[in-house]
Amino acid sequence: MALSDYARDMAGCSRNSYCKFVPWNKAKSWRFSNLCPSITRFNFHAYSGGGRLNMGLSLVQGRSELTDGVAEIIYRCQLCGACDMACKVFKDDFDITDILLEMRTHCVEQGQFNPEHMFMLDNLKKEGNVLGEPKAERGDWAEGLGLKDINTEKADVLFHAGCRYAYDKDLWGVVRGAVRLMQAAGADVGTAGNAEACCGGRIYELGFRGEAMNYADDMLSRIDASGASTLVTCCSDGYAHLRYLYPRMGKTPPVEVLHITEFLSRKIAEGRLRMRNEVPMVVTYHDPCHLGRMSESYRGEWEGDKLDRPMAMKRTGKQGCYEPPREILGSIPGLRLVEMERIREYAWCCGAGGGVLEAYPDFSSWTAMERLEEAQSTGAEALVTACPWCERSFKDALSTNGTRLELYDLTELVLQAAGIQGEGGDSDAA
Amino acid sequence: MLPEEAYKELQDALGPENISDEPALLDAYAWQPAFSINPDVWTPRPIAVALPGSTEDVVAIVRICNKHGLKYKAMCLGWGAHAAPGCEGVVQIDLRRMDRILEIDEKNMYVVVEPFAVAGQINAEAKKLGFSTHMISAGASHSPLASSTSGWGCCWDGVSMSWSSRNVMGVEWVLPTGDVLRLGSLDSGLGWFSGDGPGPSLRGIMRGRGGAFGGLGVFTRCALKLYHWPGPTENVPDGLLWDTHKELPENSRAYIALFGDERALADATQEVANEGIGYHSFGVGLGNFLSGIWPHLMRNEAFRKAEWLRKIVDVMQFNWMWLLCANSPGELEFQEMVIRKEVAEHGGVLIDMEQIGLGQPLFWGWVLGSFMGVATRCGVIGTMWGQDEVQHAMMEERVHGGEPIKASGVERGFVENDLPGSGFHFFLEEGIVSHYEEVLWYDHRDRKATQGVRDMVAEYTMMNIDYCMESGFVAGEPELRTLYGPMEHNFHEWQKKIKGVLDPGDSSDPTLYSTEQEFDLSSLSPAEQARARRLIEEKRSGNR
Amino acid sequence: MATTAISDIRKDLEDIVGQAAISDDPEAFGSYTNCLGPVKPPGPERPLLVVRPADTAQVQSLVRLANELGLNLIPASSGAPHVHGGTAPYAEGVIVDLSSMNRIVRMNRLHKVAIIEPGVTFGQLKEEAARQDLRPLMPLLPRATKSVLASYLEREPITFPRFHWDMTDPLLCTELVFGTGDLMRTGSAAGPGTLEQQWEREIQQKNPTGGPGAVNFVQLFQASQGTMGIATWASIKLEMLPKVRRPRFVPEADLDRLIDFSYRMLRLKLGDEFLILNRFALANLLAEDPAEIKALAEKQAPYTLFYCVAGYQHFPEKRVEFQEHDIAGVAQHYAVLPRDEVPGASAVRMLEILDNPSPEPYWKLRFKGGFREISFITTMDRAPSFIALMEETASSLGYAADEVAAYLQPMMQGRNCHVEFNLFYDPADEGEAQRAGKVFDAAGVALSDAGAFFSRPYGPLSDIAYAGCPDTVATLRKVKQLFDPNGVMNRGKLCFEEV
Ligand code: SF4
Ligand code: SF4
Prior knowledge:
CATH class of one domain in chain C: Alpha Beta
Largest sheet of chain B: 7 strands, antiparallel
Bound molecules: iron/sulfur cluster
Number of strands of chain B: 17
Distance between the termini of chain C: 16 Å
Helix content of chain B: 25-40%
Number of helices of chain B: 20
Largest sheet of chain C: 6 strands, antiparallel
Largest interface: B-C, 104 and 99 residues
Oligomer: heterotrimer
CATH architecture of one domain in chain C: 2-Layer Sandwich
Structural class of chain C: alpha+beta
């Protein structure tokens, strides 16, 4: 597809601004009823989902040119998918997210990309991760966990750590803890160690679609080698890409893909993991975009008039992974969840996605601060999330701001509740 | 092109991040498929967009534009062509950054807002204090300030919450010259409680039934009436649309009545309105509903040919809905007694919508403004309407004037086949007048549709004239104004004079105010054209 | 003017209205000039003539003639006595007395509407409306000769805040002759089509939004004291004649409490007639004899709210029953006690009084034969402080504070409030008259300084009102210039001295 193939879809925008606000049934206050970080921060209509379509149409109709300024607008967007969801409350004959992705590919094709994004791509090419960390250290995080090496042996569950978890030492506790919990629940888990590479989703989002394909192929061959029936990841980004972008590229993973929260909630429900310790805390939960609305699976392409597209082929954001994290929180004794105003498919983004963290760090942290303020307004002591990018984004914002709010990955709370303490501690899980 | 010097001055005044002349960004302001009788969806591209953050910023922009001989036009949410520049060379003032709710006076029941405080947001804050804000038929995604100061503004809740033009109290207004005028008590520094006086009310030059639509400067703040909400302070249902679930508040009900003909409907509903009954009181054509939910179904050949279905829809055309939110069980009982009696006496059938599973989505959809309005699944919604008058006059026009035109538009393939559905009606206050809008669903991407709708505008316009009614667009569209002016005491000349004294530099986008343009009758057949000319002449001569 | 002799003017006027409709009888002049209201110094001019047009065409011709000759026209619709000074010429001119245009053109029960000419009085309208089970929305005891149209055009408050949605109420559509002589019909009456053509289409001329198009001409004419032009008819909203009514007094010493109760009642749209009076104002309404008034005032609670709930065409008893039940709850919450009577009158009697225009003499003349009225808009919660200020000002100038009649009329469903003070004096007693004048002057300044909004200022109050809003004045003058470029309409009124 080329951007011009979306001309009709882009022209479908009726300019009603639903893409800027939470669906009106869900508006709880003036303060937290904005939905799109980009328009909320930059204000010109072109920064909204709808405005982006209008601008895209202008480009393909030759009414205007793709300048540096336009490319900047295109990339000042987290690709959080909120606009798509809100528009679809009524309008479902185009998919804004697909168009926004296409606009980035268009930019790349026209040679319009960010130096920071180029840097990510170079990193990826060199080291197999977008962070530019040495390929040879990719597997370090798993040291001493006794994980199977899928390069040499088969495992039921292939664990994909993802770039951020593999290299961000601040977050190793989460990913190691996740593995411990899986093991405690009796899972046969393997990982690819240094052979693991980026899932490629991020660069797809940046517009480097061809490169992304290669990484998808890579991932599929690892899955194949592992012999696993299930792939589990703690990375919401990777999870969404495996469920949506991969099939869209014709690379459907031949395994069940689970986010760690899905895996753990199942195990808790099955009684394989017992939440025995009190975690007396009032928390609020941030739905990561890529775990929520963006993780809806690929539904296939619809030929012809999209108005006639059956419901089953539309992604509305409602089928994201919203319940498992909440079920887990609900199962932890002593813990109380207070919801923020913008949750589930209409959650506000953490700010990190779509290459914004790398290219526009100020915008990214502004977006995160908005969320932190919302979290604080609930009266919760801690903000819980389930995505390394969200966590990084919130951590950075908190460090610059002095906001007093504790931050946890959901896995960390499960570890506490399950009584699996620290590295190498004995499991007292059932 | 914006002169460099002007750009520089705007940049200095607003900060570089709040002004742009990037063509593709500007085009995002020129895409206006709704409320346009121009078959082209693109409106004139502004030469720049400015984002003021305060009244002072607005003053600065207006003064800079005046200094450089530039035109400007302000917009809030920006839905519809009337929000966009009507001519070339205009600086679009996007009021997005001025989005605050400044004050809610609980005792005196008003809220003070900036232009971009959105109805859904105001409503959410108001409901926490036991109030509702009037919500126009565009739904929650609209600016109540814009609707109150600048044009139109009626809706389903009119029976309990009046209409926008009647809900405005004090106003802060940046005149086209850049001077700031405050209306009523505000100008004397006494607060927002009155927008009128001393002496003649300058609200009279701000707007009438229509408004200046950005042709008379920029409105920067205003006070709007709030109305009692007897329901809970927390109003978030499950679901987003038809999937909405939440119990109705205490003493609330959702009813629909079906009548056999328009007369029965008009008589019964007027009697009920006279008693001031209903939180919302309105009629919506079934086809209107169906088109909103299932446009693809509407397009289905088999469905369209299902005569039995058309018959069912026809039977349900004369419907009326009451959403009741009473303050007490006694009041609810009284309201239900009156409704039952009137429906029965006029041979109607009354259905409790909760019993058929539609009560909750309908009730909350309307009360929260999330249900109808600016968003449609298929293309855009276009509406045609005339004067607001008593229910009986509106019914006459609908049944004998509007519906046949709609049916023929469907026949000609211009607009979606909603079997053909009727439009919607609602009352103002205790039934003073009723409003009726014919609804057209069409795909603005389809040239046949947009051109066809333009043709239908000509037909509706002639119908309105025949039924002695002003056109709903009359304040906005230059050609309608030129057509109607001589039939209505040359009001267009008076508008232009007011514009002249307030805007000597003609800097505030003049298109929707003083531009002259002949009405194009060419889409009508020769016989229809002859009839139209007779009609126009008859009505003009009666006016002399 | 100076260049045209009166006799020539008279001739021209005769050509328009006919000989019989012109008068130069000084007796007749008196009723316009010797008005009971305060006028700006140096006092009113003597009118040249009084003309009584019979229809819109004549009015239009008169205005056109005035433009040709530079005549000053002073419109008057009500009969004597004129109490606000609106008809007192501030410059030499011709009174255009519209009182003989007094037809009720049309009335419709189902749509609760009447079209009336300027000379129609409340008594006349009430009687006619009752025949159709309707009633007019009355101000507080208007003079028997008061023009309904003039009252509504002056934005005089009605005693029914529930039906007072916006400040134009109960005015709907109008026919206006601008100061230029141009005709405009407003609202749905604007056209297309004549009234008769519109009636055939079931149009009832009810649209209240003042158009056509983007201007609300009615708002520009309201409270203009005839300075923009002349209204020759208007449609007005009527309400249903109640079948059952239950009036109540709520006497109360604590005005703040009464006001809190009122806010809640109005928010819930409970009560049709709804007003608050201080003891002296109440006594002046209830009694006729001065001594009786004094005595009765002493027996009243400091403040009394009067309201009436009603049932109309449908289940009137039921309607009254639920309202009474709901009100009982509100009253309990605010710890006030609605009652059937106060000393000297039952609530039913009070209702009878409010239902009708004032008996002769006008109720404000009862106590002493003369009065000074000072009225303004504020919000209800601020009203008590204004009452205190008014009483303080009065007593500081030797006027008995307990003889200040105070009337609070919530408007716009409780969103703001008309506050009216009446000071009574004996016109024959120069000292008293002077004192009342002094209190009036001092109170005007003091109240304005304290935040009173003189929204329809008469006489000297206009100077005070306009001093505070120069931007409004500048814009009003531009508007006036459009509608009356030659300054022929009621010269010198409001802020239009220089025009
Ligand atoms: S993208 Fe969708 S929600 Fe946004 S303006 Fe366009 S139609 Fe509306
Ligand atoms: S994807 Fe997110 S940031 Fe980008 S336009 Fe849509 S809502 Fe805004």
